[in-house]
Specification:
The chain is mainly α and 109 residues long. It is 73% helix and 4% strand. A two-stranded antiparallel ribbon has the order 1-2.
Length: 109
């Protein structure tokens, strides 16, 4: 995401394409981590996770509003607008790290 924000032209576009490839792996991984050990409530939890995808409907309008600003912080607003997905990916990375840390603590390592 930082490459998409900071690199102009085709380099930034390639960074965005690579990000899309990683995103295709992200949801199934989060899905599996979130439902681990839920037991009988897995059906309800799975439904909640699937409905949470709707949250992604908020990003395009927010990014569009940022793009409409023009130039932000000395860079094209299109590039700067990818700060929103960057923040989302940071939250997801923290979630994954905390789940991994929790699993290590539970296993006694």
């Amino acid at each position: 995401m930082l490459g998409t924000i900071l690199i102009q032209g085709m380099g930034g576009l390639y960074c965005l394409m690579v990000t899309s490839a990683f995103m295709s792996l992200m949801f199934p991984t989060i899905y599996g981590i979130a439902l681990e050990g839920v037991g009988d409530d897995a059906t309800l939890g799975a439904a909640g996770l699937v409905m949470a995808i709707v949250g992604g409907a908020l990003m395009p309008p927010l990014q569009g509003a940022m793009i409409d600003l023009g130039v932000v912080a000395g860079m094209p607003a299109v590039n700067f607008s990818f700060v929103l997905p960057l923040i989302s990916f940071i939250v997801i990375a923290v979630y994954g790290y905390r789940c991994q840390l929790h699993a290590k603590i539970e296993s006694g390592r």
